[in-house]
Design goal:
19 strands; single chain; 5-stranded antiparallel sheet; alpha+beta
């Protein structure tokens, strides 16, 4: 049985002072739950170990895709294959952060991987800042969380220079590289998430700047420019698959910028391999019956309750739950119907007494470093709520 603690919600003025402006959903309800979910130290440790184990498995699976030219099989757009290979081959293309989504992990239920949001994961601000503030503002010990995400990102930014676990030599090796942070216009959630990452990079010691994507100039021969300044490092909260499918000219430019070593882009192109849910099928092939995995196939699973979902998609769009005969028993309309689909064995999410489902999200930045939860229906969509947690000691 899940255990919760009621808290006084953070008021909107305080949230907006933090830069968190997407606090209210379209139906005028709060996006942030007014309860904290209790977890044990052992449960926190289990989530930590699961994410670390799976990251190593993802590296092996991605290498398998590259070695066997399985890009098309997992839905990778052809115009990003070259940049994926280029970025995979060099350590300078560092994976900054991602988020594993898990079922289970509570009340003795085994942790099961649902997917890995490796390129442009959401809920960074909520996990790193807001749930910490939930404890602090309620007079609770803010250290009672599995939540070192902010500090982990500071160190991982430094690793872009040191390229090793020890970051103490950052200042010695930092050569004044300029770091440009980018989002699209008109999306406050994405912009403020990017600005948070910019703030963290500045704290790590980088010279940083923010710009909207339409303000930037790209040159295959010269690199990335904003206000006539060249930037060696570029962070974009724009999914690689969107660039490939909707901005093919930009995809070509970025491929050549990477080939010509004119800039390093974060997250790197190879994270699209991790992002593709097609890699869940590769993982099952390489690690059949692994306790952290659910059987996944490109074809419907015979005689099993399962989830059909697009290899690229967000917030439950175009996802269906199918019964043992393949009939849809729950579905979410969406814009990703044209993508290749995978079929993953259904597993029950932890639920509360009111029937709400809870999905764990574990952030990874060099190692597992932060936990948050989403609450919603059987298929979590863009109306799901963010739930903070507290570790019982």
């Amino acid at each position: 049985m899940l255990n919760f603690e009621k808290i006084t919600p953070l008021n909107t003025d305080y949230l907006e002072s933090l830069g968190f402006v997407w606090h209210t959903d379209q139906d005028e309800s709060s996006y942030l739950s007014d309860t904290l979910l209790f977890i044990s130290e052992q449960e926190a440790q289990t989530f930590y170990e699961a994410a670390n184990t799976l990251y190593d498995m993802y590296i092996e699976a991605a290498q398998y895709v590259i070695d066997n030219n399985l890009f098309h099989a997992i839905g990778i757009p052809f115009n990003l294959v070259e940049s994926i290979k280029e970025s995979w081959q060099s350590d300078v293309h560092w994976h900054l952060y991602g988020r594993f989504d898990f079922a289970g992990g509570l009340d003795g239920a085994p942790v099961k991987l649902l997917e890995f949001n490796a390129d442009t994961p959401t809920a960074l601000f909520e996990t790193a800042i807001v749930q910490w503030a939930m404890l602090k503002k309620n007079g609770l010990n803010e250290a009672q969380q599995f939540n070192g995400l902010y500090e982990a990102l500071v160190d991982n930014f430094k690793r872009l220079v040191t390229l090793e676990e020890d970051v103490s030599s950052f200042e010695e090796h930092y050569d004044g590289w300029r770091f440009l942070f980018t989002s699209i216009r008109g999306n406050a959630e994405e912009e403020n998430t990017v600005r948070l990452l910019q703030h963290i990079a500045t704290e790590a010691g980088f010279e940083t700047e923010f710009a909207y994507i339409d303000e930037i100039e790209f040159s295959a021969q010269e690199g990335i420019f904003y206000h006539d300044k060249n930037y060696e490092l570029w962070f974009k909260l724009i999914p690689w698959e969107d660039i490939a499918l909707e901005e093919s000219d930009l995809a070509m430019l970025l491929t050549n910028i990477i080939k010509n070593q004119k800039a390093i882009i974060f997250n790197p192109p190879y994270t699209l391999l991790f992002q593709s849910k097609g890699l869940l099928k590769i993982l099952w092939d390489l690690f059949p019956n692994h306790p952290l995995l659910l059987e996944t196939s490109f074809e419907p699973l015979q005689g099993k309750k399962q989830v059909r979902k697009p290899v690229f998609g967000r917030e439950g769009s175009s996802v269906s739950i199918l019964d043992e005969k393949g009939n849809s028993i729950e579905s979410m309309a969406g814009e990703y119907d044209s993508h290749k689909m995978v079929y993953q064995t259904y597993t029950q999410l932890p639920t509360d007494e009111e029937g709400n489902s809870y999905q764990a999200g574990v952030f990874y930045a060099y190692e597992a470093c932060g936990l948050g939860f989403r609450k919603g229906g059987k298929i979590l969509n863009n109306m799901s709520k963010f739930v903070g947690h507290r570790v019982q000691r």
